[in-house]
Specification:
The structure is a single chain. The chain is 43% helix and 14% strand. The protein starts with 8 loop residues before the first helix and ends in a 6-residue tail after the last helix. The protein is α+β, with helices and mostly antiparallel strands and 369 residues long. Helix 6 packs across helix 7, helix 6 crosses helix 15 and helix 7 packs parallel to helix 15. Strands 3, 4, 5, 6, 7, 8, 9 and 10 form an 8-stranded mixed beta sheet that branches. It is globular, with a radius of gyration of 20 Å.
Length: 369
């Protein structure tokens, strides 16, 4: 979810001035007053177990009790979010989302289609330049790395690498946490598999990843069911390839029943960034802006960190000394993250297009709920 374009000093100054102008055009107090008058915020694709969103939403509602939060389709994928905007361009009712949280490749695509409206939060300058659109159409929110979460009641010898997943002992056990034709999490799971085989991020890794999942499917190891905490616990999908923050949240939620391990695979550490954006057709545009201000405040960023996501302002928060030590202590060991690879936006886009186009013809596994 990172653009690789680095701003020059002049460009950065211009962006900052643009940010200041935009923020000053409508003060935070004015936004808050207008948002309370609107009285509602409509979100989409925010499961409470994802990145600590349950507590983040609760924090927003506690801070602004005058604004109700209408949560659409929590288990939707990034493609579903964009379709919801398209389908509700002329609908100002509760089925029209105000805000989006999508994978990196979907941000620029939505911008190019005219589905987004620009907005720059007060903390804009603390968001890394390579993790946001210069005009404020989309901006990085958090990142994690691809991991395995394993039901150790059923899998006492967890896989430690992508290549391990091909072993006969994992027959009928391996799933993706989404449909790779629509879900950013699943699409990047395919990218990770390709990178684990030495392919360069982008179309090359997509091709290698699709070949890997073809092998996995033909071996009988792939389960064409969207993996989540429930399917992990039930044993339908005892091994799920998912973002570390989801995996860790599911592990904690299961509370040992069944026990679960979270493993960052030894053959690749793929980092992925997600982005926030406001719909160009948002029925409650001021509530949407206030939501963004909350998410990018210290409080909102720490809410994501509590959900095991690395917030985009993480370095700024640490430098300010506002991250509680007990929160840092709950994060996974740092060594697995030191080798993290952040693919460029071009690579992410190329991979996304290739995976969505090739999954049916190469892998031929129809992934279902």
């Amino acid at each position: 979810m990172k653009s690789t374009v680095k701003a020059s000093g002049a460009f950065a100054l211009a962006a900052l001035l643009a940010s200041t102008t935009l923020v000053q055009a409508q003060s935070l107090a004015e936004i808050e007053t207008a948002a309370k008058a609107e009285g509602m915020l409509t979100t989409i694709a925010l499961p409470h177990s994802w990145c600590g969103y349950g507590d983040v939403i609760a924090g927003f509602k506690a801070k602004y009790p005058e604004i109700s939060v209408n949560e659409l389709n929590p288990d939707a994928g990034s493609a579903d979010e964009l379709e919801a905007v398209r389908a509700n361009k002329d609908n100002k009712g509760p089925q029209a989302p105000d805000v989006l949280d999508v994978g990196l490749s979907f941000g620029p695509a939505a911008q190019a289609e005219g589905l987004l409206q620009p907005y720059k939060v007060a903390t804009w300058d603390t968001i890394p330049e390579d993790a946001k659109d210069a005009d404020g159409n989309w901006y990085g929110d958090y990142y994690g790395v691809m991991a395995f979460v394993v039901n150790t009641d059923l899998v006492p010898n967890p896989p430690m690498s992508f290549e391990d997943l091909l072993k006969p002992e994992y027959a009928g056990q391996v799933a993706l946490a989404g449909d790779p034709r629509a879900s950013n999490q699943a699409i990047l799971g395919v990218l990770a598999a390709g990178m684990a085989r030495g392919a360069e991020p982008g179309a090359e890794a997509a091709e290698a990843g699709l070949a890997f999942f073809k092998e996995l499917n033909e071996a009988g190891n792939f389960v064409p069911v969207i993996g989540k905490a429930g399917t992990l616990a039930q044993g339908t999908t005892p091994i799920v390839i998912a973002w570390d923050y989801n995996a860790l949240s599911w592990r904690d939620g299961l509370n040992g029943n069944p026990p679960a391990d979270v493993i960052v695979p030894s053959d690749v550490t793929l980092a992925g960034v997600y982005v926030q954006a406001i719909s160009a057709y948002a029925p409650q545009p001021n509530a949407a802006k206030l939501w963004m201000e909350y998410l990018y405040s210290d409080e909102g960023q720490l809410g994501w960190l509590a959900g095991y996501c690395h917030p985009i302002r993480f370095n700024d928060l640490v430098a300010k000394g506002v991250v509680p030590q007990d929160m840092l202590d709950k994060l996974p060991p740092a060594d697995a993250y030191e080798r993290a690879v952040f693919p460029s936006i071009e690579a992410v886009n190329a991979n996304s297009e290739a995976v969505k186009a090739g999954w049916d013809s190469v892998v031929g596994a129809n992934v279902v709920e």
